[in-house]
Amino acid sequence: MSFEIKEKDLLGRIGKLKTKTATVETPLLFPVINPSSQPIPSKRLKETFGCQAIITNSYIIKKRFNQIPIEQGGLHKFLGYDGAIMTDSGAYQILVYGEVEVTQKEIVTYQEGIGSDIATILDIPTGWKVTKEDAQITVAETLKRAKAFFDLKTRDDTLWVGPIQGGRHLDLVAQSAIEMSKLPFQIHALGSPTEVMENYRYDVLADMILTAKNGIPHERPLHLFGAGHPSMFALAVSLGCDLFDSAAYALYARDGRYMTENGTWRLDQMDYFPCSCPQCCSQTPQELKQKPAKEQEIFLAEHNLHVCIAELRRIKQAIRDGRLWEHTEMRLHAHPALLSALKRVRNYEDLLEKYSPTAKPSGFFYFNAAGLARPEIVHYRKHLTQRYTPPTNAKILFLVPQTRNKPFHKAPEMKKIRQLMRIIGPDLAAQIHVCVYAVPFGIVPLELDEIYPLSQHEAAMPPDLETINYVAEQTAEFIKRNNNTYQGTILLNDKKIWNNIIKDAVQDACKTKDLSFDSIETNPEKPKETLTQLTNTLHKQLNTK
Amino acid sequence: MSFEIKEKDLLGRIGKLKTKTATVETPLLFPVINPSSQPIPSKRLKETFGCQAIITNSYIIKKRFNQIPIEQGGLHKFLGYDGAIMTDSGAYQILVYGEVEVTQKEIVTYQEGIGSDIATILDIPTGWKVTKEDAQITVAETLKRAKAFFDLKTRDDTLWVGPIQGGRHLDLVAQSAIEMSKLPFQIHALGSPTEVMENYRYDVLADMILTAKNGIPHERPLHLFGAGHPSMFALAVSLGCDLFDSAAYALYARDGRYMTENGTWRLDQMDYFPCSCPQCCSQTPQELKQKPAKEQEIFLAEHNLHVCIAELRRIKQAIRDGRLWEHTEMRLHAHPALLSALKRVRNYEDLLEKYSPTAKPSGFFYFNAAGLARPEIVHYRKHLTQRYTPPTNAKILFLVPQTRNKPFHKAPEMKKIRQLMRIIGPDLAAQIHVCVYAVPFGIVPLELDEIYPLSQHEAAMPPDLETINYVAEQTAEFIKRNNNTYQGTILLNDKKIWNNIIKDAVQDACKTKDLSFDSIETNPEKPKETLTQLTNTLHKQLNTK
Questions:
Q1: What is the predicted ipTM?
Q2: Whether B335 and A458 lie within 8 Å, measured CB to CB
Q3: Confidence (pTM)
Q4: S-S: B348 plus which of A268, A488, B61, B210, CB 3.0-4.6 Å?
């Protein structure tokens, strides 16, 4: 097995990928090397930037240098780089120019000849605005070539990439993923996302990645071709991409563009460097603008690469901390088109929940309804729906609002509830089932509230309307599901935060299931009155007075 | 005038503050210097980190060194630092220890004697969990001391800070701000926010800052005492704070804590440095953990300071770009308690709108309803409500959904609308007023859609429910306001995105004002049918068929 998963969170993972030259850690960025024009020498990429791997285009190298790399003893010597080297095949040139002057046999043989650690078959990219019929042709032709490839290859020490095509036609992506997975590739790649990204259709990209991911074996790494901007690394990793290549760090630099993990500036528009990398600490934009163009380009390429590499370290630390969602949600606020991608994730929440760990080293942060797709929330909802039963004696469901402090049962407000239970006495108290309605889980039976992560989270208050609606819906569903247990519901209503939305939903649910219902307003100014009201209502519902 | 505002956005600004030693640029961080234990020498602060100013505590220096700084020729020589030096007065020690062994006269004279560039009166901090009565006393005593101070001071080349107290009692903060503003301080400060921040009550902090800000002259800089964590700089600057001091960079370092602009890690929990600063590029956490404690402390102090300084550069670039809201909204996703602060801002939207520029160098990004407090949106709503009148011939309000491309009138979908106008002919077309319902502005008359920023923004789609409700409300209000102009409304309804919420609101508004109403569903599959339906409905409402 060439790929070993060490840590995981969401669909992201930290892994070890073993190539014939070096074992590299994923998520991994392959800086693109152009042997004819390279702002950062490949040696420096490894020694100063710690790049464990690079990528170059075997088609272009073959056209320009033909047998020279082989005569020099292979690609590693030719490029002066002793880390892992991946090669692309010219498929991107097919996308851009329509065709290439090489056969698959030639380019497979060439990649083996120059000694690529990771190599790519000559697939046919689908592209962006392509009809379903044309997309179908690219998927079929890529699959045909993939099958034919296994008769062409002669070395066993190269990791081969099987690209998945289909573009924005998700049924074709699914089909491509399933068929390509049947072949013994060590790595898969999602083909032709470049135009999708150029059009800021990160929502479509999310659909494509998740559809591909759903079709391929979890234990094979996924490469996202052409995704070289650090603002989208977190999204791509969260959705299960392990490998990236970036020509952007160098191309942007040549064009005077300064990358950050949140977007791009043009150098000529900058007064301040919003970065602490060694380059940005060494001079100001005013000083850099005075320098020769070549010096500016090298500065920007080095800065751009620093940003990319630091962002991948941040992502790895987030995976290790179990906080990849938080990190990604924050990053997606760099652009509305990125945030739109997060909204698509709810359609794949089962996939995320399946692979994400359910216990984590730390609590989580909830901001708004975009977070409802979180594995922790989906997991709890499934648990509550499929496996939870209320305590046996429970007759009255007593719903109380969430408290500022957690766990709920230790919060100061709960003293009042315990006082109420003492007033009515242990026999009646045993018939009362206290549940908290709370962001973001909906309803939390008090006896569960120390189970991770029901108390281990922080939520932004006041909640957004969609989140309140979710809490209301979950609470109402809970009542409907357990209508044989309870004979009635009493709601302690916190109108200020919840705006009667919980109340209305609970009332409707009780009406539907013919349960008695009472609602009492919270009133921190008059705790005694509230207590008396609650006592009376409990007695009324239990018919004990 | 010692403070000159160069650029502004929201309540933040880039300014020049002239002190007797140096002119410094704001927003500015004063690293706290502890002469007895300083992980980064003050000389290095200036030369390597570019710190233009530092702060130290005159009370502690007086206690420990008494006349030595004066004998050595002043504080600048004593500390070996030739930038601007601010001194605190011991007020923080009053908050922590209840009292100090110095009178206001002594500490005012001492600060003048050692030659502070910026100095602080001995105010009485309010603190956090303080009753209104006790808070009132601190406000009154601070004001009394502030008034008395002007008879004590002897030098005219020192900038003096007049702190505003009141704590979480906003009416007291308002009163303190107004009264302190009447005195000729060059700088104000918001007192005692430390405990508010320690309790993660950034929502309360936002209330306090904005209340203070509302009371003091716009042209005086505001210092936020004790706000040294980079995750909150953006929030504080957006709300109008210009000056910060940080002991945290050093205190956190001593405690093994690693700051980022998004939160704090403990070094012992880190596998990766999520940063590109020179320190973090030079070694891994594994390597650092092997080093002696003192070396770790210096590493962390330098890293922490790099992060703080880079964040302030980022904020300045954001102000210059007119993108401080975007930057702040992104940063507030570091913690739910920070995001809660943003939700408070809607209560002060007029204040933000008053001081924020209305024309900007770039468009803006809208993510969800938290953005409805943006000055651009408030400004447009006021304009539409107070100064807009529909075209004179308008009889039918024709509401069409927003298009993906902007400006709306150039979008492909609008071709259909122009075709419709040709079908009904120029006379009838002149009676149709086309308006777009759109996130986040609500309703945009088509003839305005090139005015900034009605087309210069990107919104995350699909919109959140609160935003849809806002669009519905704005559209309904527009109809009710202009009910004398229109005799009817036709809605092209995009149910997929808007879920009939716009339709219901528009229908209600029309009913209330006795206007005719028709709704036609968008149907991209059957454009011809839609066109026929629209033509017929227009004729029907205009009684021309």
A1: 0.95
A2: yes
A3: 0.96
A4: B210
